[in-house]
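User: Hey, my collaborator sent me this sequence without any context and asked if I could get a structure. I don't really work with proteins. Can you help?
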Amino acid sequence: MQLIVRRVKKKGASREVAQEAVSGDLIGIQEAKDCTPEQLKINEFNSGIYCFNTPQLLESITKLQTNNTQNEYYLTDVIKILYNNGHTISGHCIDTVYEILGANTQEELDNLNKQAEKLFSQD
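Assistant: No problem. I've predicted the 3D structure and written it out in structure-token form, which is a compact way to encode the shape of the chain:
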């Protein structure tokens, strides 16, 4: 299982943070609201882009629980479930946040196009 992560300078600022095991593998994703002070020091955030093994995902979804501050089911809990079942979770760290941003309006799309032009003109 793989996901795309991004390192940020301001720790604890993102809506979700990835926890790293000693091995460097990802072991879970935690909503900032549910983080411990130690977890808030992690400077990686979840992009929401995943590549799952379908049978593993479907099995893991049946184990989701609502034991969090929001009392909601979090798809991101699948990462910890997979890790606890012995699967390796790896993250691909991107260079710039613009690689994963989306646009919902024409204005947002125009802004992304401007940022892409700046990035490509630096080459």
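In plain terms: The first helix runs from residue 54 to 61. You can pass these tokens on to your collaborator as they are.
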